[in-house]
Amino acid sequence: MEYSIEKKSPTVVSVTLSYAAGEVKEAFDLAARRIAKGMHLPGFRVGKIPVSVIKGRFSARVAADATEILADDRLMELLKKEGVRPLTPSQYRGTPAVDGQPFSFSTSFDTLPEIELPDLETLSVTVGDPSPGEEVLNLMLDQALRRCAELVEVTDRTPQDHDLLTVDVRGTVDGRSLPGMTSEDFRLQLLPVPPGGKVPEMDPIVRGLHVGETGHGVMICPDNYPDPTVRGREVQLEVTLHRIQQEILPPLTDETAKKLGFSSFDALKQEVWQQAFSARMRQLQRDAKHQLMEAELEKHDFPLPEGLVSRFYREHQKECEHYLRKQHADEATAREMLEHMQGESMAFARKKAKGYTFLLALAEREGIQVSGKEAEDAVRAMTVGTGQKYEDIRKTVWETGMITAMQERMIADRALEHLFAKARKIMAGSTALKPFSEVAKA
């Protein structure tokens, strides 16, 4: 085998491989022996079928397997020996090799750039107090009690705090309906606005309506709306109130708790506290990981694998299109909005690619891997609750190359967990954040 490896850029490597006729024949013989292993054919003992018979009867399969050996397996062995790690495994899609004839091909792929990675022992991150506040606990307790709540129809007054409403909403700019701001039979609950809190845009409109009436108002299009051309502009709101239901929560008693599946009201409160605490911990961890990543990415600048950038750009555009379709945007509107979002999609893709590149480089340094079995288990988990067969999902995942993206994401997730686990955690408000001279005896 003859080969050449050329680094086209900090993130792209090109490889050319050439095999002599004898090497190609060896690959065909190996492929045939693997196929013959355990195969039953009339007139032959198991495991004793001649290679020539396998080549004759299963020529297309042998050629495909032999080509995979030469173009995929041998290539990966070569790259491992040369210390070249492709960001994504190469998959040969050219003309199959021919038994006993020379075979050569060229391929290129993304690689990780050189990144100055941090010493994880020096990292620290500030986290908040994980104890849930009284307001959060009361809200979660109300959510539990709502499972036994009574809904009473109201027709003789305007909406009040805690009422459940059913409305039609139409948001327009220059007379054009905006996807995501237009909905029929939309359900919402009016909640008290805390002092200094922001009043939801529809509150002033619906609070003055009786059932069957229509009201109008204005809101400012939010900064995260998909179409950047209407952000910050006035949106005309038309709201029709169809239904008011008063929610009557059950009393806080042991009997109510038992209806909810708990032995006592104290047991219900304990479960509410535990769930609130767990949710708070998960949020604190997400925030801390985000802090760590933002801080590290701010310190480092490095070239990005364009294959990653392109993939994340397509994913973002596809997610936006799915959202617009779900919000009943017609094809022309969806296409126009996606064109307006191209710049944001590219900015999103480059930021995500930078984070992924950093985490994958960290995983390589720290020896973080995902085994084939773990990838298989992840694919199997995708079928849970879907009614789809594992074999069908697996075939799709492998044939489309999704398995590579899955493994890559799993590795990046593990690298982020490792980064967070190694960093020193400092609780917000801790004396560790103050100069020593300002720390007073309690």
What topology does this entry show?
Elements: E1 2-9, E2 12-19, H1 21-36, H2 51-57, H3 59-82, E3 103-110, E4 124-127, H4 134-145, E5 150-154, E6 164-173, E7 176-189, H5 203-206, E8 214-220, E9 234-248, H6 254-259, H7 265-299, H8 306-326, H9 331-340, H10 342-366, H11 372-382, H12 390-399, H13 402-422, E10 424-427
Parallel strand pairs: 4-10
Antiparallel strand pairs: 1-2, 2-3, 5-9, 6-7, 6-9, 8-9
Q: Can you tell me about this structure?
A:
This protein is α+β, with helices and mostly antiparallel strands and about 450 residues long. It has three domains: about 110 residues, 2-Layer Sandwich (Alpha-Beta Plaits), CATH 3.30.70.1050; about 100 residues, Chitinase A, domain 3; about 160 residues, Trigger factor, domain 2. Helices cover about 45% and strands about 20% of the residues. The strands form three sheets. Strands 5, 6, 7, 8 and 9 form a five-stranded antiparallel beta sheet that branches. It has a three-stranded antiparallel beta sheet with strand order 1-2-3. A two-stranded parallel ribbon has the order 4-10. β1 and β2 form a beta hairpin. α10 crosses α13.
